[in-house]
Amino acid sequence: MSGAPLNAFCVDLEEWWHICAADTPYTDPKTWDSAPPFVVKDTEILMRLLDEAGAKGTFLTVGWVAEKYPSLIKRLADAGHEIGCHTHYHRVVYEQTPEEFDADIGQCLKVLREISGQPVNSFRAPGFSMKREAFAYAYPILRKHGIEVDVSIVPAARDHGGVAGFTRDPFMLNIPATRWGPQNTMKCWPVSVMDFLGKTMPFSGGGYLRLFPMALVKHGYRQNHRAGRPGMSYIHPREVDTTQPRLKLPWKKYFKYYVGIAGCEGKLREVLKTFKFTTIADVLRHVRAWPEYDLVLRGSGARDGDIVPSTSARPVTSAHKVA
Ligand SMILES: [Zn+2]
What CATH architecture applies to the domain 6-320? Predict the structure, then answer.
């Protein structure tokens, strides 16, 4: 597979109760210490799968988990995996004030950088909750903290997050000067989606991966590869564990949260055998062209941002092809 298209294997490293926008007994972080822990043994399953395939991955980690299990993070870093940031307390981005988000990211990165010994410069929002309401403050704040790569945007409609019709290719985001810092740039890579039966939908992780037949998942990767675009998986440790306690959730959410867990490990093994996976940083090193987009602050509202194709950039003609 040496000349095969590259893909990033991304794990959102969190506990089994880290679910967004749901009322559970574990909504308050004060309850987390008393919850039965599963994250270490479940992450070890994912580490074994990656080892079997000779692949590396990026573990976007909840700071609280790293603080509680520092040796797990050290083992991941020592094994050559990349550590990224998934916030400290796994709160939906657009529900936080800019000040709360700033404090949470600072706390998370301090822990992750100290424990891993890595720069830790990639970020994913909990529940992919990066959408227009959060763009204007979240990107300047992330950049202020040294985040260089964001993998939070889903270019399709979703429950909490998702920007329908958004670009699917990695792009360079121009961030204007704000009270959070001077003008800067950040690489953004939207989560993989595919077109199927007239709809745009994710396929490479979560409930989609667990629900879809393997042939459809492979079709999703190949559709992206044909467009010269690397694929990106996303998986949570709990998704390979049938023994985890089950949360009481509204039926639709319950279905999406727990469907197909028994078959997930086998599907991941198959995906890892079929396609070539590595870290986010490694994939992005091979992206040759970076179309530019501008973060536009409309008016003075903190929740008034948009991301639009840059008017000042040179046009990119053979964009996104990976070398
Ligand atoms: Zn998460």
Answer: Alpha-Beta Barrel (3.20)
